[in-house]
Design a protein that fits this description.
845 residues, Chloramphenicol Acetyltransferase, 9-stranded mixed beta sheet, 8-stranded mixed beta sheet, 23 helices, 29% helix, phosphopantetheine binding, Amino acid adenylation domain-containing protein, AMP-dep_synth/lig_dom
């Protein structure tokens, strides 16, 4: 961080009469020459705020005057005046003031050296809004609360209390557990505070007190990122025959980035205006008072949340979606109700195929009967090779009607991956409408020509807490994880979609059916009597074919990742766009310019930016976009939908204040059971809810922050997980696959931004000779298309840090010139095409 501006200042109220002619003579003869300004009596008494303004003016003048010392005298009364001295850092203002008012005294000598920084710490970037000190300070004053009296009564030194509280708050703002700061006034010292979460407030204060006592003395002028002042009452001092008392104006020169002091019963924070904004410092001050009060009350350090009293009220309100009654039934029951209300309504359309609700219900009953005849019912899991087709929808509903749960698998995935997912899920059978071309590790069940079954046969009914489906996502340990979603979760999620407005008329479901994002639009339409429109594989890949679909099927609702919706806006005609009633996007960041484009084409159609992982039945928060979002740097994902809870927590699972990043946790009845057959990862991610008795929270791994008006913004991933065109990809899974090849010694995979595009890049260290084409072919045999890297860079060794870890920064900045590879002929459609449908982890409803 740049050093101070090279100037320092002091101000005193002096009792006595100034001999102005003598002072003019002395300043004119001084070497270096001292610039003297004397305000006339007509200027009147100078107030404290005006004092800060005068100091600023003198500093600006000194900057343009090669840093010459400057002195200003302003009369306050007949025998009383204000003295301001601005000097270069190496020349203390107090010494110049003493020289000026002491007849015959020699001009003071400058100290050696330049301004140093006290300690190596820094105020967290979450608080700083600027990058360079301005040299000027502004000040925030707020009441210090009841803590001051408690500390004084207990004999706790002010500087120790301020150091302890500010250190805790720095940690709550995302700083590390060790905080470097300076204790100034009198004999300044640099102190290092270790924030120990396990101790009591009293114990922590005692340890900080010892750290201050054992601090390293520093010589002024010293500039600290964080400084606390000792509580002192200005003592009169003698300048020659005159008496002077120092004053601290609220706006003057910044001697530290952030200086915290106690003035009477008020907390005062001086901050460099080039580094901080007033609103941020005022919020910081309010939270600091809260921390002081918690420590004074001897609360354990880990229980100090750093929220103001108002924030402790508003954050729970922001974090909780409003309660809404949800039918306590299974998902298929709601679809059966739609069929009973209007059996002739069209339920599903895909290409030339179409089913009414009567036909869907009848066909699903036949599937359910076939499964039950094979002994499959409640507690069983049926794998479905689910391509985009009406038959796949029939199979999904039929499995649910049988009482079993389904696990959809993309039939176009590599055979090895399909077999691995079948074994991982523990599926009892595979149900398919035709014989697959691969060997299966579990029994295959094909439909037969059983008669129509219009009513239910006797069977054990599933409960809303029973498993509905299992969706597999990329796994950080090198293996995909199956997420076990129960009926209550998807029913809750589907009911919450009412916040998006009118129920679907004709809902275009873009994601492949093996992704949970498809469940959002699919079941919202089927449970409300709407029509599900599935694109064919050609329509999903070809933007022009998609445009014809939008025109032909009179689509009213669209759910897509932003990149797909951008293509639709470009290819769809005005008539098709005018029919849209609602558009929801999610799965990847929504660019503000896409909001602007939507508003140009569809000014009357609501656009929602949605967020939510598979582990909470697709979504959890939503934000209706407006003109203001088109001008933002980032578009929020809004607030929790009905019956959901959304928390932003720090490492100690404490709520973070507005503006402070943390990890996003989700709660409510839509939280999944966990990961199928993986108790370890389930225990790590699905945690007891500290805010809701008997509740559970899902730890998303996403970073976020609340805005000051209670809207959630996403900030990326806590771990290494990345999003590629809406698909959630764990680089570890790709790395583990590549490392299994005998020709490969090592591999690292990461996401890079190249020419405004996000590209998945694999850095490979071979053991023996292997061509990039062969390596890519191997990947295509084991990985789905969205997980195959766009680039493969062959290295002799992976760059590593001194600690032995892979140097991600080097990989992110390494040139890829010469390493670009050709797209595979069949399994790698270009990124941005409709083939890359959104991952169900964070897709729209």
């Amino acid at each position: 961080m740049p050093e101070n501006t090279g100037l320092t200042a002091g101000a005193w109220i002096v009792e006595g009469r100034a001999d102005v002619p003598e002072l003019r003579t002395r300043t004119a003869e001084a070497q270096p020459r001292v610039r003297l300004t004397v305000l006339g009596p007509e200027s009147g008494e100078v107030s404290r705020p005006e004092t800060g303004g005068l100091i600023r003016e003198e500093v600006v003048a000194a900057r343009t005057d090669a840093g010459h010392p400057r002195v200003l005298l302003a009369p306050l009364a007949e025998k009383r005046f204000l003295l301001i001295v601005v000097t270069p850092n190496r020349l203390p203002p107090r010494k110049v003031a003493q020289w000026l008012l002491t007849p015959g005294a020699p001009f003071p000598r400058a100290t050696d050296g330049t301004t140093a920084r006290a300690g190596g710490g820094d105020v967290p970037a979450t608080l700083r809004t600027g990058s360079s000190p301005s040299g000027f300070a502004s000040t925030v004053h707020i009441p210090a609360g009841r803590a001051v009296a408690r500390f004084r009564a207990a004999g706790t030194r002010t500087e120790s209390a301020l150091a302890a509280a500010s250190s805790v708050l720095v940690v709550r703002y995302g700083g590390g557990p060790t905080v470097d700061l300076a204790v100034v006034d009198g004999a300044p010292v640099a102190a290092r505070v270790q924030v120990e979460e396990s101790v009591s407030g009293t114990t922590f204060l005692s340890r900080v007190d010892r750290a201050v006592d054992s601090g390293t003395p520093v010589l002024p002028p010293t500039r600290a990122s964080l400084a606390v002042a000792r509580e002192t009452c200005p003592e009169p001092e003698r300048f020659g025959s005159l008496t002077a008392v120092s004053v601290y104006p609220p706006d003057s020169v910044s001697h530290h980035d952030l200086l915290i002091s106690l003035v009477g019963e008020r907390l005062r924070i001086d901050y460099d205006t080039g580094l901080f904004e007033e609103d941020a410092i005022r919020a910081f001050a309010g939270r600091l008072v809260t921390v002081l009060e918690d420590l004074a009350a001897d609360r354990p350090v880990h229980a100090v949340s750093a929220l103001t009293a108002d924030e402790r009220i508003t954050l729970p309100q922001w974090s909780t979606g409003y309660s809404e009654a949800v039918d306590d039934v299974c998902l298929h029951t709601l679809i059966e109700r739609s069929a009973a209300r209007d059996p002739s309504a069209v339920a599903v359309v895909c290409g030339d195929s179409e089913l009414t609700y009567r036909q869907l219900d009848s066909a699903a009953n036949r599937v359910a009967e076939r499964l039950r005849a094979a002994g499959l019912t409640r507690g069983n899991l049926v794998a479905l090779l689910s391509e985009r087709s009406v038959d796949s929808v029939v199979a999904m509903v039929g499995v649910l009607k049988s009482g079993a749960a389904y696990a959809p698998i993309e039939p176009g995935h590599p055979a090895a991956r399909i077999r691995r997912l079948l074994l991982d899920s523990g599926a009892d059978t595979v149900f398919a409408h035709r014989e697959p071309e691969i060997d299966l590790p579990v029994p295959l069940l094909l439909p037969d020509r059983t008669p129509d079954v219009h009513g239910r046969t006797d069977r054990e009914e599933p409960s809303p807490d029973d498993l509905a489906y299992v969706i597999h996502t990329s796994g950080s340990t090198g293996a995909a994880k199956g997420i076990a979603v129960h009926h209550r979760a998807i029913v809750t999620s589907t009911a919450a979609r009412s916040v998006s407005g009118v129920a679907p008329g004709r809902d275009l479901v873009l994601p492949p059916l093996c992704f949970d994002g498809a469940a959002g639009g699919l079941y919202w339409a089927l449970t409300t009597g709407g029509t599900v429109v599935l694109p064919t594989e050609k329509e999903a890949r070809d933007p022009l074919a998609m445009a014809k679909l939008l025109e032909r099927e009179t689509i009213t609702h669209i759910h897509a990742v932003p990149s797909h919706y951008r293509v639709m806006l470009q290819v769809a005609n005005a008539q098709a766009l005018a029919r849209l009633v609602m558009v929801a996007v999610g799965g990847e960041p929504l660019a503000p310019d896409l909001v602007a484009e939507h508003l140009r084409h569809c000014p009357d159609t609501p656009l929602f930016n949605d967020y939510g992982p598979t582990e909470c039945a697709v979504w959890a928060t939503t934000h209706r976009c407006g003109p203001a979002d088109a001008g933002r740097t980032a578009v929020p994902v809004g607030r929790p939908v009905p019956n959901y809870r959304t928390h932003v927590l720090d490492d100690g699972m404490r709520p973070t204040p507005p503006g402070v990043p943390g990890e996003i946790y989700l709660g409510g009845p839509a939280v999944a059971h966990g990961y199928r057959n993986r108790p370890g990862p389930t225990a790590e991610r699905f945690l007891p809810d500290p805010f809701e008795p008997a509740g559970r929270l899902y730890r998303t791994g996403d970073r976020g922050r609340w805005s000051e008006d209670g809207r959630l913004f996403l900030l990326g991933r806590v771990d290494r997980q990345v999003k590629v065109r809406g698909f959630r990809v764990e680089p570890g899974e790709v790395e583990a696959t590549v490392r299994r090849y005998p020709e490969v010694a090592d591999c690292a995979v990461l996401l890079r931004n190249e020419d405004t595009r996000e590209l998945l890049v694999a850095f490979v260290v071979p053991k023996t000779k292997i061509s990039e084409g062969d390596l890519r072919q191997r990947m295509a045999e084991a990985l789905p298309a969205h997980m195959i890297p766009d680039h493969i860079a062959v290295l002799t060794a992976l760059p590593r840090t001194p600690g032995g870890k892979i140097d991600a920064l080097s990989l992110r900045t390494m040139s890829l010139s010469g390493h670009r590879v050709q797209e595979p002929t069949e399994r790698r459609p270009p990124r941005g095409s409709a083939r890359h449908s959104p991952d169900t982890n964070t897709t729209p409803p």
